[in-house]
Amino acid sequence: MEKHYLTPEGKAQLEEKLNFYKTVKRPDVVKRIGIAREFGDLSENSEYDAAKDEQAQIESEIAEMEAILLNAEIIDKKNLHSDTVNVGCSVKLYDEEFDEEVEYRISGSSESDPKNGVISNVSPVGKALIGHKKGEIVSVKTPGGVTNYKIVSINI
Predict the structure, then answer these.
(1) 103-145 pLDDT, tens per residue?
(2) DSSP secondary-structure letter at 21?
(3) Of 103, 121, 99, nearest to 112 (Cα)?
(4) Between 46-70 and 8-20, two packed helices, what is the crossing angle to 10 degrees?
(5) Could you tell me if 86 and 106 are in contact, meaning their C-beta atoms sit under 8 angstroms apart?
(6) Which fold has domain 77-155?
(7) Separation CA 127–CA 44 (nearest Å)
């Protein structure tokens, strides 16, 4: 199974979300299914169909969250080193093409938030940066073409 990297905060948030799904969302949809059953003929009952579809979606999300937590590797900042890029580090890059600096935090895929500068270790940029050191130039193949980044700094 695939490893899922999580920060301690990310693990706590995922556990909280899983608990909410199990204790609030799941019982709510079960209640709505029961109410929809009372309307009679299930073959033409759109409320029942919608609630069953939502139940399937909720159960799928619960299973996914449980699998992530089961296969989670918690990132311990005490074990990180600022000499190479790794999951849990923040990295400042110089984008040669646009003559600008950008900063990303490398996270596991379940915590990524590209709009806020948090990229996944399996994204094209994240994958290319892992294992490289300050001062190195890394070429990243993206859908828009190849981009070269110089690693300016690595922080924990």
Answers:
(1) 999 988 888 888 999 999 889 999 999 999 999 999 998 777 8
(2) I
(3) 121
(4) 150
(5) yes
(6) Chitinase A; domain 3 (3.10.50)
(7) 49
Q: pTM of the full predicted structure?
A: 0.73
Domain ranges of the chain: 4-74, 77-155
Angle between helices 46-70 and 26-37 (to 10 degrees): 160
93 within 8 A of 152, measured Cβ to Cβ: yes
Task: Please say whether the beta carbons of 124 and 141 come within 8 A.
Answer: yes
**Does domain 4-74 fall into CATH 1.10.3720.10?**
no
The radius of gyration of the chain from alpha carbons, rounded to an integer in Å, stands at: 21
Strand partners, 90: 105, 155
Q: CA 26: distance to chain centroid? A: 22
- The string of pLDDT tens digits covering residues 20-44 is 999 999 999 999 888 888 777 666 7
Span 64-76, pLDDT tens digits: 999 999 989 888 7
Cβ atoms 94, 153 nearer than 8 A: no
45-64 residue pLDDT tens = 788 888 899 999 999 999 99
